[in-house]
Prior knowledge:
It is a single chain. By secondary structure, the protein is mostly helical. The chain contains 20 helices and no strands. Helix 2 (17-63) packs parallel to helix 6 (116-131). The protein is globular and about 60 Å long. The chain starts with a helix and ends in an 18-residue tail after the last helix.
Amino acid sequence: MDIAQRLSQWFLRSFPSERAVRLGDWSRRLATLVGALLIALIALAFAGAGDWMHALFGALRRWDWRLPLIVTPLLFVALAWLTARIAPEARGSGIPQVIAASRDPEGRHESGLVSLRVGLAKIALTVGALLGGASVGREGPTVQLGAAIMVQTHRLFRVRVTPGVLIAGGAAGVAAAFNTPLAGIAFAIEELAVAYEQKLAVMVMGAVMIAGLASQGIAGDYVYFGHVGAHLPLRSVVLAAPLAGIAGGLAGGLFSRLLLASRGPGGKWKALLGRRPLVTALVCGAIVALLGVASGGSTWGTGYEPTRGMLTGGDASIWFGPAKFIATLATSVSGIPGGIFAPSLAVGAGFGNLIALAFPPEEAGAIVLLGMAGYFVGVVRAPFTAVIILAETTSSTGMILPLFATALIGDWAGGLVCRTRLYHALAGDFAPPAAAPEGSDKDPS
Length: 445
């Protein structure tokens, strides 16, 4: 009998079952507290590193506009090679990995998807992608690392890892990345959780609130896109919400369909692209570089600055939305690590900017916001999450009803183009063969 078994038997003899349960509950709470605080700290460090790398890329571009035509494709190749060599589980968004791992969190394969090694590699590789102007976001990687951190803290405190642990960590990652606690809870309900029970709800809310408060305490009570305070008269809502929902939803559904055809399980072009992964990365990097040069740099990175400008009524090219769409798709198809949350919001803002041409100039910011909702929901198919994220990141509580109308229409329109939910379909690519979801070998679109 080893030492661990002897200690276990001593513990069971020394503590009545009721006390043991209470002690286990406190261990779980402490593990959640420590995990959520670490997620907030690392998310803030990740955001700072990403911003610094993007600024460095901007400095290179200003020094010589031709440098991105060389740096971006070569960096895409290097990142694709490094990802395949050191952490293949880190490719893509990060959210599908958490969904796949939550199906059997203590399985050997699933544990690798949310290991601390993979999570940290994901962050480092995504920061590298921002150095090359890749159209990636920080949110998906923060979700994967958040789940990894929460798993490690629970193991440290000898608490059993359940699906709720991964869901809480992933939701805390969203809250810390966007500084949006309510959106973290909504995301857990709509995307990560298959069954939402009371204990899971308490754990998720606790982790999200702790991570959100820690983030706000360090970075300040900032609003991600600034205080937009947008509003629309009813006559414009009646026209703009269906228009933004249908156009954005169809475009978002198209993005999901194309990405699943390229990278999803059983995708039509997956085998072809996978035969020469480095050539694929080189071509995708060249596309991103050319689009960035042609757009004056607006399509590189997360798209935060042009999005904020459009929300506040600033001028933007009418080609930004389509160009950012292609840049984000090329980045995702390349197989390098990086999220699609922030780029999708930027693409939606570009399409909203096109729709705003048919409305009075003073309503442009609000129309852009509706465009963001319609497109984002078309991609992610999570209307409740989209509304909460946009309301919290712009402080536009007066737009909640128009946003809900747009999001519901966008969800319907997106489903017409791509019936499969993007993250859940991509999760099948990270499941072991025996645990792959039924029908994952078929065309997911």
